[in-house]
Design goal:
Mean pLDDT: 87
Largest sheet: 5 strands, mixed
Strand content: 15-25%
CATH architecture of the domain at 15-97 and 111-143: Alpha-Beta Complex
Strand order of the largest sheet: 5-2-1-6-7
Distance between the termini: 61 Å
Helix content: 25-40%
CATH class of the domain at 15-97 and 111-143: Alpha Beta
Number of helices: 6
Radius of gyration: 20 Å
CATH superfamily of the domain at 15-97 and 111-143: Ribosomal protein L13
Number of strands: 7
CATH topology of the domain at 15-97 and 111-143: Ribosomal Protein L13p, Chain: A
Order of helices and strands: EHEHEEHHHEEEH
Structural class: alpha/beta
Length: 177
Amino acid sequence: MNCFQAKAGQLTPQWYVIDATDQVVGRLAAQIAPILMGKHRPTYTPHIDTGDYVIVTNVDKVVFTGNKWQQKIYQHYTGHPGGQRDEVAWKLFQRRPERILQLAIQRMMPKNKIGRHMQGKLMLYVGPEHPHQAQQPIPLVARSGRPTAAGALFATTAAVAAAPEAPPVEPTAPAAE
C-alpha cells in the first residue's frame, strides 16, 4: 500500500472567509494555521503547499484573554545597532490592528520558504468587507471556547443551519410498584 503524495499544482485551493468578531486571538490562529498549511485535508503533504486561502474579516474586533492587552509585548529589530524595539499589544493594535492576528498565525507556521508562501494565502481585513467575492469564498464559523483534541475545528454556516436539532428529552417518572 502506497502513501499519497501530492504534486505541485495537483490540488485546487479553496477560499474560506471567517468573521473574527469577539474571537480570542490565539484560539482563532490555531484554527486558521492548519487550513493555510493544508493539514485539514486528507491529501496533506509536508513538502508541498496543499493549503487553502483564508480571508479574515473584522480583525479589529479580536480579543485577548486575561490582561494581555497591557502585558503582552511584541519585539522587532530595525536592523541597526541598538535597534531592538518593544511595543505593548494595545499600542500595536491601535496602529495596525491586523498585525496582532498576523503575528499569531505567523508564529504557528513553518519557519522556511514554504511557510512564507503559505502565509501569502492569508488575507486580513479591518471591517466586514473584502474584495474577494469573485472567488466565492466558503463562510466558516470559528469555534469559540477551548479546542478539543478531536473533531472539526470549523463548521460551515450551511452545515450549522442544516443540522437537525435534537428532540427534547422528557424525564421519565419512576414506575411505582
